[in-house]
Structure formats: structure tokens, C-alpha cells
Specification:
The protein has about 350 residues and is of the alpha/beta class. Helix content is about 25%, strand content about 25%. The relative contact order is 0.17. About 5% of the residues have low confidence.
């Protein structure tokens, strides 16, 4: 993996953390972003014992506000997540600050029940452990920026990637697109909708004659000279893009398509399938309907499987996954009750 990993602000020290329960819980949600919290909310409202493991490093931490979320447009990410944690706790769910070191099918004596109900052991980096019947992976993804000097310092402010997340806020500004591959062509046309002053820096990527003609028709200037660095203003903003010959192309905003890697740390023992994104743009988890995976008892949803999903879409996918998980648990509870009845036992 090359390039610069975008920096994330953490707020773990400022957040309250619940205690890990000693008993096996119905579900552990790995990831405390909007997707994970919404999945946990659905489970908690179904009276499931659910624990969210929150590392405090959401993808959108550098952003000033969440956009495209009806009724909450412009809400700062930290505020939105705090509301989500409060709502999960309101229904009995727990939110624990920590990072997952490993998640794996549980060994005996906590192995699957006689009816085949799965069990998983989750171990945190500080050594704490807990047991769960189901896992909901909401780890999100990591954005990796191209290796251009001075670029990473402006991530989430002067450097943006999503025209729907940040476009309105940078409208009518002089915008530059730093190309990373074929995906950047579409990227440029989307940002052209937002400004009349757009420069496309090819950075050695191919650009055929037809595309150049389309860009020219839209008034997009193409710069083929190599990019040396992103130059900053005295107040920390972007002054422009400096080329290898020393020329400075003034820009106030830069748009760049990041390489998006699903966060897989600590999940290797689960054996979840992953797949490369087209054009070498990263890797994501492979899922079926409602975030199902090939591993019984494990669901994945949100940016970890759908890198293009905004906050609302990620949260909605998690809500659906949570509902499916509850239905799966209901079926397992019923199987266990039936087996107990057939053996002459009394179960509630």
C-alpha cells in the first residue's frame, strides 16, 4: 500500500466507556461509527444484549459537518456520534472504548451450542475479552492519499474527495483535481458542476484525446507537467499546486480520489472474503443481502463493504443488518427452546 494515510482525530479520552460484561452477549459490533451504532440501535431496541467496540477513529473525523443526511445536515461528526451512543445506551446497549486485537470463532467450552448457535471470542488490545453469539463488523475503511508533499495536512478541509459530502461548501472556488487514475476523470466532471474554475493535473496518468476534448468543452484546463507539492498559505490554507518546473498554479481546493482499504485489522481469523476495487482503488469485504457473509454468524455493512456509501446509506445498511441479525437470533432461540422441550426440559 503506497501513499499517505489520511490522519484521523480521536476523542477517546473525552468519551465515557461502559464496562465489558462477563457473560456471553447476543452481538458485538466492531466499530462505533454511524453504521455500527445504527446496527447496535436496532439490536438493542429488539432487547438484545449488544456491545459496541469503538476505537474512536471514524473516517469522517476531519470533516466539519455531515452532509446529505436529511434533518441532520451540517451536524459535526463528533456530535452525531455522541447522539448515537446516547441512543444505543438508552435501550440497554453498551459502548466500550477500545480496539479489537482479534475476533475469532470461540474455542471450547464456549464453542457453538448443541443446536449449532455460533460463538465468537473478541479480544481487545488491552487484553480484555468478551464472548458473543453474533458479530457485526462496522470497521469502515481507511483513505490513502497519493504521495504528494503537503497534501495530507489539508485532508478534510482544503483537500476533499466527495462532491456530495463537501461540494456545496467549496462551490465557486478555484478547484484542482489531482488525478490518480481513470476514476479521476469522472471525479473531475462531478466537481465541474460546482465551479467554473477547474484544473485537472494528470500526474502521469493517461488521458486520451476524446477525454481531453470533453474536458475542453466544459472549460476544464489540463496540466500535464509533474506535480511537486501542495503549497500552503500563511494561514494554513491551500495556495496552489507547485509543478516540477517551479510554477505555482493557484488553487484554493484540491479534490482527489483516495485509495480505500477496508479496515481488517484483528479480523483475520474470521476468514472473511475481500475483493479488490476496480482500477486498483483499494479493497472491500464481500457481502450478500443485508451484509451477510460466508461466515455463519458474521455480518458486514457500511463503508467496509460499500466504500461509496455516505453516512445515511451506511447507517441504513447497518439498520438492515441489525434487523437480519435479530431474526437469525430469534430462529436460534426457537431451535434451542424446541430442543429443550424435546428433551423434557423447561425453558423460558
Amino acid at each position: 500500500m503506497s501513499g499517505t494515510t489520511a490522519a484521523y482525530a480521536t476523542e477517546t479520552s473525552a468519551r465515557a466507556s461502559d464496562q465489558l460484561p462477563g457473560e456471553t452477549v447476543d452481538a458485538v459490533v466492531i466499530g462505533g461509527g454511524a453504521a455500527g451504532l445504527n446496527g447496535a440501535l436496532m439490536l438493542a431496541r429488539s432487547r438484545r444484549a449488544v456491545v459496541v467496540i469503538d476505537s474512536g477513529s471514524p473516517r469522517n473525523a476531519p470533516a466539519d459537518g455531515v452532509h446529505g443526511l436529511l434533518g441532520l445536515d451540517g451536524t459535526p461528526p463528533a456530535e452525531l456520534l455522541q447522539r448515537g451512543r446516547d441512543e444505543v445506551r438508552r435501550y440497554g446497549g453498551l459502548v466500550v472504548t477500545g480496539e479489537v486485537a482479534s475476533a475469532a470463532p470461540a474455542p471450547a467450552p464456549a464453542a457453538p451450542s448443541a443446536e449449532g448457535d455460533p460463538r465468537f471470542r473478541v479480544t481487545l488490545t488491552d487484553g480484555r475479552t468478551l464472548s458473543a453469539r453474533r458479530l457485526l463488523v462496522a470497521t469502515g475503511l481507511r483513505d490513502v492519499l497519493p504521495d504528494v508533499r503537503g497534501l495530507a495536512e489539508h485532508w478534510g478541509h482544503g483537500v476533499v474527495h466527495c462532491p456530495y459530502c463537501h461540494g456545496w461548501e467549496v462551490r465557486d472556488e478555484p478547484i484542482g483535481v489531482l488525478a490518480v487514475g481513470p476514476a479521476s476523470v469522472h471525479h473531475a466532471l462531478l466537481f465541474r458542476q460546482l465551479t467554473d474554475d477547474l484544473v485537472y493535473f494528470t500526474r502521469g496518468t493517461g488521458l486520451d484525446d476524446e477525454t481531453r476534448a470533453r474536458f475542453a468543452a466544459r472549460g476544464i484546463r489540463v496540466v500535464d507537467a509533474p506535480v511537486s507539492e501542495v503549497a500552503a498559505t500563511g494561514d494554513g490554507g491551500i495556495a496552489g499546486v507547485r509543478l516540477s518546473d517551479g510554477q505555482l498554479v493557484p488553487r484554493r481546493v484540491l479534490a482527489v480520489a483516495t485509495t480505500m482499504w477496508a479496515r481488517t485489522e484483528g479480523l483475520e481469523e474470521l476468514g472473511l472474503a475481500t475483493q479488490d476495487l476496480p482500477g486498483g482503488m483499494g479493497r472491500h469485504f464481500v457481502t450478500g443481502m443485508a451484509g451477510t457473509t460466508d461466515v455463519p454468524g458474521v455480518w458486514v455493512a457500511g463503508n467496509a463493504t460499500d466504500p461509496s456509501a455516505q453516512v445515511g446509506a451506511s447507517a441504513a445498511a447497518r439498520a438492515l443488518a441489525g434487523a437480519h441479525m435479530n431474526a437469525d437470533l430469534v430462529a436460534a432461540d426457537t431451535d434451542a427452546a424446541l430442543a429443550a422441550t424435546e428433551h423434557g426440559l423447561t425453558r423460558v
